[in-house]
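As a warm-up, study this chain.
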Amino acid sequence: MAAPLTVTVDADSCPAPVRRILQRASERRGFLIEFLVNRPREFGDGVVATVVNGETVDEAILSRVAADAEAARKRIVVTRDIPLAERIVAGGGRAIND
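Now compare it with the structure written out below.
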């Protein structure tokens, strides 16, 4: 069975309206979503964020994209970090601005 789409969000700077849109879309379409943060945060809108320990969010995102070329094609990274997006695309991944 093919792996489902995964949306990985650089959540430290992701606006609350975008988080809510992504959550609703995930519920409707059934894709996986992960919100990554550098430090514990309370978003207050039902978002469950994963705190990245021992590395930056950028490093964690890049390692997820690089881990498996097949899975990278089924992952979209949401970020407003242009240099990070450039590295993701250069590595064969997909990135969009939030």
